[in-house]
Design goal:
The complex is a heterodimer of chains A (298) and B (289). With 298 residues, chain A is mostly helical. Chain A has twelve helices and two strands; from the N terminus they run ααααββαααααααα. Chain B has one domain. Chain B is built from twelve helices and no strands.
């Protein structure tokens, strides 16, 4: 195995891990966007809350990791539904323009992010439930058990959510509400209830992503900001509102960021993704698989 | 006394900044969420010119502001066609790009270490007299900004600006070149933000990326919305309230580890509540929705 292939496979692995996390946050964001058609920026803080709740159960209250994980994912889902109910739904009733949702969501994001900072402090925290005794080899690159778990859990979640949306009745109802809430209402679908379902599922996926990344890196109150930004970028690249697009965009972003360091120093990773956002917004706002016509975006 | 003068100067700088955003957000109705970027461009260009080439701050101020205006023009040109929330995301992304450049281009900006020893406008030996001098300088700049903004807003051009906010299609139907107007307003707004940045850098004498991050952009947006979009008085009030209010927290004696996040929490809560319940702000005429 040459150095070259070892490096390429390491980059491939890093891209896969980053891409999986991005795809998970982005798919949650996309499910919500598809249903309500506005930017749920506070999705990022739901992601951070998931990680912190898991941390609280696991590290502070000494629950076992699986229970902490499940409790954190469910409470994040409830947080998502609460945000919808108390913030967005009130605005929907008053028929607010899209920008208002975004600004209110920003405000909420800042509020919860700093609430986390107030409770847990600004320092970074670690959560390491898995004992790393040795790493495995992957085409010359080293991979840890945690990383394997991250990749597997992400892919299983992505497949599960896709099956749910495409194959179940509830998923069908969700798509009906996303396509046309009025008509869905006419055929007896409670669109408010279904929007709550979308928020519940989307927020749970964000929490899964937040917990998984905390196993590999760390927790900090500001972790949600980068995450939501990456999710928005992934969604725009894939085509805003498209669920397969969000997954594609997540992996695309993961690969571009990581393979980008072959050409540009690693500190510019974030710069690459912000630049991608601007490029797509300007040149191709509907992304690769956009389901919303270009003229509605510009 | 020195502390009050310091607060006066900082408030003045933020009044210029919020007035410049108000032109874009309040009068033109474009939700620009990356205004700290222009503030940063003004601050960094005139500081770097002064530190590396020995350019006088008086000249650097206008060069920095012109750089900001040029970037405003470029951003305006690239994003003017985007719809409200996409425009918001694009300008937000632009703010992040500028932040990322000043943070990572260590060779020029020294990154997170910041730029120390930026020369002041006029070097007095005594701190007190230089503070008084700065107060007068800032006051002058604030007045010039207010007069300039009023001149724009109450001119025929100003009515075109507001007609774009109220009904862009109608403005276009009347033969107004909305694209040109938008780009010009971005330029003017960016120019004044650049002036504010340069004034800030040459007053504090030290800048680092943390003064120009996303929260700074959101804070200015909050100033404009809190005071009331589309009013000059609103921007002044909004800036004054949000700069002076944290000092109250400090005055009560809350420890810093609690005060910093609580302040941000209040900002977040305020932003959410304002857009939901009182989009016209404290003294606004124009309702966001």
């Amino acid at each position: 195995m040459t150095m070259q292939t070892a490096m390429i496979s390491q980059l491939f692995l890093n891209s896969l891990i980053a891409g999986s996390i991005y795809a998970l946050i982005a798919i949650g964001f996309a499910i919500i966007y598809k249903t309500v058609k506005f930017f749920h920026f506070a999705h990022g803080v739901v992601y951070a809350t998931g990680a912190y709740v898991a941390y609280a159960f696991f590290q502070i209250h000494r629950f076992d990791f699986i229970s902490s994980f499940i409790l954190a994912v469910i409470s994040s889902g409830i947080l998502g539904v609460g945000i919808y109910q108390f913030v967005y739904h009130t605005l929907q009733v008053k028929k607010a323009p899209n920008l208002i949702y975004l600004l209110a969501s920003f405000g909420l994001f800042i509020f919860i992010e700093n609430l986390i900072a107030l409770i847990y402090g600004n320092q970074i925290l670690f959560m390491r439930p898995i004992q790393e005794n040795s790493s495995y080899s992957f085409f010359g690159a080293a991979i840890t058990l945690t990383q394997i778990i991250i990749i597997i859990v992400s892919i299983v979640s992505l497949v599960a959510i896709w099956t749910f949306i495409e194959k179940t009745k509830l998923g069908l109802a969700l798509r009906a509400v996303a396509d046309d809430p009025q008509t869905a209402q006419l055929v007896g679908i409670n669109s408010v209830r279904l929007t709550q379902v979308a928020f519940f599922i989307g927020s749970m996926l964000a929490a899964v992503a937040g917990i998984l990344i905390s196993l590999e890196t760390n927790l900090s109150p500001t972790m949600g900001f980068t995450a939501i930004f990456k999710a928005i970028i992934a969604s725009i690249i894939g085509g805003i509102g498209s669920i397969p697009g969000a997954v594609f965009g997540g992996y695309f972003l993961g690969f571009v960021e990581n393979f980008g360091i072959l050409f540009i120093p690693a500190i510019w990773q974030d710069f690459i993704s912000f630049a991608l956002l601007i490029v797509f917004l300007i040149l191709k706002p509907s992304g690769f698989f956009g389901i919303i016509p270009e003229k509605e975006l510009i | 006394m020195e502390y009050q003068l310091h607060l006066f100067i900082i408030t003045g700088i933020f009044i210029i900044l919020s007035l410049s955003l108000n032109l874009i957000l309040g009068y033109l109705g474009q939700p620009a969420l990356g205004h700290a970027a222009f503030f940063a461009i003004g601050a960094y260009s005139s500081s770097l010119l002064a530190l590396n080439l020995g350019v006088s701050p008086w000249i650097g101020l206008f060069i920095g502001a012109s750089f900001a205006a040029i970037s405003g023009m470029v951003i305006g040109y690239l994003t003017f066609h985007l719809k409200e929330d996409y425009f918001a995301m694009a300008t937000f992304g632009f703010g992040l790009i500028i932040y990322s450049i000043i943070k990572n281009w260590v060779g020029v900006t020294r990154g997170p270490m910041g730029l120390p020893g930026i020369p002041q406008f006029v070097a007095f030996n005594s701190l007190y007299s230089s503070l008084i001098f700065y107060c007068i300088l800032i006051l002058l700049f604030v007045l010039v900004t207010i007069v300039f903004m009023k001149r724009i807003i109450y001119s025929p051009f100003g009515r075109v600006i507001q007609s774009i906010r109220d009904d862009e299609l109608a403005a276009e139907a009347l033969g107004k070149d909305t694209r040109r107007v938008k780009i010009m307003i971005f330029m003017i707004g960016a120019f004044f933000a650049g002036i504010a940045g340069s004034l800030y850098a040459h007053y504090i004498t030290f800048i680092d990326p943390s003064s120009f991050d996303v929260m700074e952009s959101i804070l200015v947006v909050l100033m404009v919305i809190l005071g009331g979009m589309g009013t000059i008085g609103g921007s002044i009030l909004g800036a004054a309230v949000l700069i002076l209010f944290p000092e109250v927290l400090r005055f009560i004696g809350i420890p810093d580890a609690v005060a910093a996040p609580s302040r941000q929490m209040i900002y977040g809560f305020l932003l959410m509540m304002l857009v939901m319940k009182r989009p016209q702000g404290l003294m606004g005429k124009y309702k966001l929705w």
